[in-house]
Amino acid sequence: MKVSSTNNNSISTSNLSKFYRNFRAVNSLTIDVSPGDIFGFLGPNGAGKTTTIRMLCGLLSPTSGYAKVAGFDIVKDSLKIRSIVGLLPESSGFYNWMSAEEYLLYFAALYKIDTHLGKKRAKDLLEIVGLATKSFVPISYYSRGMKQRLGLARTLINEPKILFLDEPTLGLDPKGQQDIQKTLLELNREKRVTIFLSSHTLSEVSSLCNRVAIVNRGRLVAQGSIEELRTLAGSSSGLVVRILNSPSAQKELSSLPYQIQTNTTDNNRLIDVHVSDGVSESANEIIDRFEKAGLQIYEIRRMGMSLEDVYFKLTEAKKKEDQQTLPEAQQKPKSKEEQRQRHA
Fold first, then answer.
1. pLDDT tens digits, one per residue of 124-182
2. Positions of E strands within the chain
C-alpha cells in the first residue's frame, strides 16, 4: 500500500553496479522507490539483492553508477544515511549474554539517543514485537523466531525514515509472520515509513507491497505494480463467475452479450464462466446481468496470475533474452553432432 507523503523518503538508483573482479554481483541496476512505498525486491539466491541493500545503506561502495536514499548520495553521505535508515539483514548478530532490553539500550546509545527516551523506546518496541514478557531473559535462550523479532525492534530503535528488510519473517511461525506484517503496515500507514522488502515469501510480498522489482543475476528483470507486472507477463485480468449448473444454464449463458469461455467443475455441478478483460462493464454490472438471466452465482473472483507465476514467467523470459544476445563465444558449447551439422 502506498501512503502519500511530502517527505523525501525515496530511493533511486541509476546504473548501480558492483563487480568483484570478473563477477558482476549487481549490473547496471536502475530502480525508483517513491516515498511511502512498500517496495518488494525479488530474485533468486545470488541475484544481487543483499549486495544492493548493503550499497543503499552505505555499507558497501558501488563499482559504478550512483544512488540516493532520502535525497542523500550513498557514497558521499553514507554516515547520514546510516543514521536515518533501519536495516534488518537476513542474518543478524546478537550479544547473547545481554537481555533484550540491554541489547536495545546498547543500540540506542550508539545512535546517541537520550537515556530516558531510549528506555521508553526499548520498552515500547519490545511490547510491539511481542517480547515484553521476555525482556530480561538472556538472548542466548531465545529461539530463532524470537531473535528475528528482537532484530526488528533493534531496526526501529532510531525511528528510521526508511526500512531495509531482508527476509524479515524468516524463522517465524504463522502467527509471528502475521504480527510482523501488521507492524510493518502500521509503520507505513501511521508514520509514513518507506519499506524496502526483500523476501522469498511471495505471498507476503503480494499482500504487503504496492510496487515490486524483480532481479536476476544482478540485472533488473522488471519493476512496477503487481498488476503492471501481470500485464507484462501476459496475464488476463478478467472475471471468473462460478455458477450452479442447470438444464437451462448453457442457454442462458449464450444470451449474455460477452465473449465467454466455460468449463464444468465439481462433477458437472458447477460452471466456471471466464469473462474476458475486454469487457467495459464493472464487476457489479456483470453480476447484475447474470442474476437477471436467472443464473445462480456460486462464486466470483478476478482472473490473473499469482505473483509466483509472474515471477517465473518474467525471469525465464529475461533469461532467454539474455542467451539470445550473448556473443557466440560465450554461449553454451555446441555438441559434436551440432558442430558436424554446422560444417557439413
1. 999 999 999 999 999 999 998 899 999 999 999 999 999 999 989 887 888 888 888 99
2. 11-20, 23-29, 32-33, 38-42, 64-69, 72-73, 85-88, 162-166, 194-198, 211-216, 219-224, 239-244, 260-265, 270-275, 297-302
Residue burial 174-190, b: 16+ Cβ < 10 Å; e: rest? eebbebbbebbeebbee
Q: What cell numbers appear for 186 in the block?
A: 502500521
In 122-161, which positions are buried (b, 16+ CB within 10 angstroms) versus exposed (e)? beebbebbbbeebbeeebeebeebbbbbbbbbbbbbbebb
CA 116 to CA 68: how far, in whole Å? 33
51-105 tens-digit pLDDT: 999 999 999 999 999 999 999 999 999 999 999 999 999 877 899 999 999 999 9
Is the model's pLDDT at 4 over the cut of 50?
no
Q: What pLDDT score does 1 carry?
A: 41
The C-alpha angle 227, 233, 235, rounded to 5 degrees, equals 65
Q: Answer yes or no: are the C-beta atoms of 47 and 215 closer than 8 Å.
A: yes
